Amino acid sequence: MTNLTFLGSCREIGRSGFFLQEKDESFLVDFGVKFQNPPAFPPSVPLDELQGIAVTHAHLDHSGGVPIILSGTDASLFCTPATQDLMILLLRDMLKIARGRLPFTSKDIARVRRQCVTSAYEETLPIGHHFEMTLFNAGHIPGSAIVSVRCNGKRILFTGDFNALESRLNHGARKNLPKHDIVVTESTYARRRNPDRQKIEQELVDTVIETLERGGTVLIPAFAVGRSQEIMCILESYDIPRKYPIYVDGMARKVNDILVKHPEYIGSPQAFGRAVSRSIIVQDSQDRREAIESGGIIISPAGMLKGGASHFYFKKLHDDPKNAIILVSYQIPGTPGAELVASKQVDVGNRTYKVTADVRMHHLSSHSDSVGLISMLENIPGDPEFYIVHGESESCDALAEQLEGLGKTAHIPEVGEKVSF
Ligand SMILES: [Zn+2]
User: Could you tell me the distance, in angstroms and rounded to a whole number, from the CA of residue 141 to the centre of ligand 1?
Assistant: First the structure.
């Protein structure tokens, strides 16, 4: 009999973690962090019989607690090569920002490289005596994987975050997944329909061109991993870099360097390579001043204007109606980005800014929406039982209802819940 314990990501987004036990062996999938003060990790698990930990993708809500696990075991870490490099970059950044308030050190992050056994998509690896693992493309960010584990004659699928549709940066998630008995699925956008991607891209490019033609500068606050590169690829596909300078600031430039080394995880490596070579990397304050005066486009973290270099640019650009600030991801309520969209008035640092620049929202989702979730899940053969995680409570309920409407069995586990099969 196999036990599966849900360590986190239950009726919330953040700190994903799943623990499988089969006889005298165990296996983990994801061990993330939830950003609050102090940062919260999944509950600890016994490590003496751990055979390994698989990480679906580099986002810290899936990987942020991995060094805690590795510091207590010599077991291997399994992920794609791109995830390994991106995860190390993000963990180091998290450690720097946290200034010693994390339960691990840089030595523990070094274990990520030492203990990692990278795996390509579609490759099956035996783990211990009782487990077998295969990664499939999840289409969420470069290197992201859906993890399939086989044990005790059963096949269990952990979707991680996935996007069935391809974007300018990613191939879509693996179609026609093999037979499974249990599916643990995310539900982030179970209550949302994403507008047609091509339409959003066109609207984004229209806003950019309008702004630049009237002599303004465009600020696009964007996450460093995935979204910044997708924006670069969109602008490249519309040939914008030939006419206007594109500045890329913050960690995105390190992410670019990593992704150039892993072209197999990019939809069109040639287009991405062109986008990188035609963008200007911001190195210092002189470059930042130049970017402000350039009459071009600035892509800079953080995606919700929560910090990073985007604050510097925001302060310089917010009070000229010629300029535009374009938000390209969901803005969590309470963040400066959400305030900006709602009221064009925003608290940054300890000042309130009234914004006269044009503010637009062109949301490019990296998760499947309600239709994408269902069409992917209902086509998994083997009549699997579904466990719904990684979404707000209402989203978990909505997805369960839809699956039950199709005659499927769906559960919404609580944190710490253990199921046996
Ligand atoms: Zn993610």
Answer: 7
Among the three residues 311, 336, 361, which one is the final residue of a domain in this structure?
361
Q: pLDDT tens, 323-350?
A: 999 999 988 888 899 999 999 999 988 8
Phi, psi of 406 (to 5 degrees): -95, 10
| Same domain (yes/no): 352, 388 | no
Listed in sequence order, the residues at least 6 apart from 40 whose beta carbon sits closer than 8 Å to its beta carbon are 14, 15, 33, 34
Number of domains in the chain: 2
Same domain, 250 and 312: yes
Contact status, residue 380 vs residue 404, Cβ threshold 8 Å: no
Please give the model's pTM, rounded to 2 decimal places: 0.95
Mean pLDDT estimate for the chain: 96
Same domain? 23 vs 165: yes
Please check whether residues 8 and 118 belong to one and the same domain.
yes
Which residues have C-beta within 8 Å of that of residue 298, sequence separation ≥ 6?
217, 218, 219, 220, 247, 249, 282, 291, 292, 313
Measured between alpha carbons, how far is 30 from 402 in angstroms, rounded to an integer?
26
Under a CB-based contact definition with an 8 Å cutoff, are residues 79 and 116 in contact? yes
Quote the domain boundaries for residue 139. 2-192+366-420
* Cβ atoms within 10 Å, residue 262: 18
Q: Of 361, 381, 400, which closes a domain?
A: 361
Residue 360 banded pLDDT, cuts 50, 70, 90: very high
Say how many Å lie between the CA of residue 15 and the centre of ligand 1.
11
Note whether 185 and 256 are same-domain residues.
Answer: no
- C-alpha of residue 172 to centroid of ligand 1, in Å: 14
**Ligand 1 midpoint to CA 420 (Å):** 27
pLDDT (average), residues 177-186: 98
Query: Would you state the pLDDT for residue 332?
Result: 83
Q: What is the pLDDT of residues 52-89, one digit of tens each?
A: 999 999 999 999 999 999 999 999 999 999 999 999 99
Q: Where are the beta strands (DSSP E) in 261-323?
A: 280-281, 297-300
Instruction: Return the CATH number at 221.
Output: 3.40.50.10890
Q: Which position has the higher pLDDT, 294 or 380?
A: 380
Residue-level length of the chain:
421
Regarding whether 356 and 310 lie in a shared domain, the answer is yes
Inter-residue long-range contacts of 45-49, CB under 8 Å, 24+ positions, other chains counted = 45/5, 45/7, 45/19, 47/72, 47/73, 47/75, 48/73, 49/21, 49/24, 49/25
Neighbours of ion ligand 1 (CB under 5 A): 59, 161
Sign of CA dihedral 359, 331, 80, 157: negative
